[in-house]
UniProtKB/TrEMBL annotation:
PROSITE patterns: PROKAR_LIPOPROTEIN. GO terms for molecular function: aryl sulfotransferase activity. This is Aryl-sulfate sulfotransferase. It comes from Algibacter amylolyticus. It holds the Pfam family Arylsulfotrans.
Length: 482
């Protein structure tokens, strides 16, 4: 051993001795080991993996081809379930009083889009139907999301048909219209009334915020890359000439900012708008706390949509569920996005991304002239190329302990990763289009739009006797999971 190594050892020894004399060393007790959960390797559905440090909570989901909604614990055992007479219309939320707000599917021959809903139902904890509201007609339908607000109101995502004449009047190129219809995307806020009614108390429509450089004779003719606050009606994205041009697939609300974030699959963009406007202001370009009426405050994912940048500047590929991470969590205040990877030029894989939009001291989103909205790239990404891909649906959620729950929707697979991006929990939905699968069956047709984990201290569980039921699948295998 070299002399310098001896010196180092002596130095460390002296430091240790002096520390212990000063009583500066705190010897922490070893963290209690979590029991190892043994799961049969041949499991094909239900609980697949459970390692230490999984976030302790209950996961809510409503399978796409099912009338049921489940709340399960980390062992895959049912804590509660609700049964509707109808298949899922995609979103479901557990409210603080223990009721669920669930969209249900009602097929509408006039509005044909994936993710159709049409009716919102609220069931109490014991599955009594408290309220049901139909929002579908020959010209519109609710779809995908129905988001509960703290004041009891609900935000609904609506597709509404626009005639070819109206679309041409807004400068749409008629050559990119395969049918006589185009759908606009609206958000309405409703105040539930009685057990089957509601007042519409606020409304926003992207139709009021369009621009085009195709037809100079129309009012909204303009320079697209100088007006990123407006949507180019001729940016057809992946829809080509289909009526479902924008295909919005989620809305989420931030109460502190009073802003809504929308995901458009058709154009691979997420957009933020102001919710503090009146409905009249939301149709205009002024008013509201941000002073911009219903214009787009921020957009990200595909700057080609506003003629800035090229395919290399694109970051989103048919994404879902952009939402603000709660302030008190790791990465709080930033935006988490499930980036499906639909049409990704570098191959078929999904990722989960975090971005942190740049704002000035007044809280306005900043854009440098002639540049797309920042950031250029996400600041965080999880992917698992070759093992993780869902073209459609899906979502991800940051959890209070820094873990992330990911729903790979088409596979009906939920998994949790820790802050080192290691998978520590995995579950596969056994409730499929062909019925409840048995342990050992190959999972098929078991898609889930979104999964959401609630903390055990969530008010819905307070003073409630929670009875742990069986796993969902038939012939469940034995595990030591508790
Ligand atoms: O086939 N579906 O059930 C389906 C298709 C598309 C879709 O839209 S998406 O944007 O949520 O993927 C939702 C559901």
């Amino acid at each position: 051993m070299k002399q310098s190594n001896y010196l180092n050892i002596i130095l460390i020894f002296i430091t240790l001795l002096s520390c212990s004399e000063d009583n500066n060393i705190t010897i922490l007790p070893p963290e209690p080991e979590e029991p190892v959960v043994i799961i049969p390797e041949q499991n094909t559905v239900g609980l697949i993996e459970f390692k230490p440090k999984v976030y302790d909570g209950y996961t809510l989901f409503t399978p796409s081809k099912s009338k049921k909604t489940y709340l399960i614990n980390n062992c895959g055992e049912v804590i509660n379930q609700w049964v509707s007479n109808y298949n899922s219309g995609k979103s479901v939320f557990l409210l603080e009083d223990g009721s669920i707000l669930r969209a249900r599917e009602i097929l509408n021959p006039n509005i044909q889009i994936g993710g159709i809903g049409g009716v919102i139902e609220r069931f109490d904890w014991r599955n009594n139907l408290l309220w049901s509201y139909m929002h579908t007609s020959e010209t519109f339908s609710q779809h995908h999301d129905a988001v509960p607000l703290k004041n009891g109101n609900i935000l609904l995502l609506i597709a509404e048909s626009i005639t070819k004449t109206e679309a041409i009047q807004k400068g749409r190129n008629p050559d990119t219209m395969a049918t006589d219809l185009l759908y606009t995307e609206k958000i309405i806020e409703i105040e539930p009334i009685g057990n089957n009614n509601a007042n519409i108390v606020w409304e926003w429509n992207i139709w009021d915020h369009l621009i085009q450089d195709f037809d100079i004779t129309k009012d909204n003719y303009g320079v697209i890359n100088e007006n990123p606050q407006l949507m180019d009606i001729n940016f057809v994205g992946r829809s080509g000439d289909k009526a479902d041009w924008l295909h919005a697939n989620s809305i989420q609300y931030n109460e502190e900012l009073d802003e809504i974030i929308i995901s458009f699959q058709g154009t691979s963009e997420i957009m933020i708008i102001d919710h503090s406007t009146t409905t009249a202001q939301s149709t205009s370009h002024t008013g509201g706390k941000k002073g911009k009426g219903g214009d787009i405050l921020y957009r990200w994912g595909n700057p080609m949509a506003y003629k800035l940048g090229n395919e290399n500047d694109r970051t989103l590929y048919g994404q879902h569920y952009p939402h603000w991470i709660p302030n008190e969590y790791n990465d709080g205040g930033k935006i988490l996005i499930f980036n499906n990877g639909l049409d990704r030029p570098t191959g078929d894989f999904s990722s989960v991304n975090i971005i942190n939009p740049i704002k000035n001291s007044q809280g306005q989103y900043i854009i440098t002239s002639n540049k797309p909205f920042d950031p250029i790239k996400p600041e965080w990404e999880y992917n698992d190329i070759g093992n993780f891909f869902s073209e459609i649906i899906s979502g991800a959620q940051r959890l209070p302990n820094g873990n992330t729950l990911i729903c790979e929707g088409q596979m009906g697979r939920f998994f949790e990763i820790n802050d080192k991006n290691q998978k520590i929990w995995e579950y596969i939905n056994p409730d499929s289009g062909t019925g409840i699968l048995s342990q050992g069956d190959q999972p098929l047709d078991n898609a889930v739009f979104r999964a959401f984990k609630y903390s055990k201290d969530y008010p819905a569980f307070k003073n409630r006797e929670l009875i742990t039921g069986n796993p969902i699948e038939q012939n469940p295998s034995m595990t030591n999971c508790k």
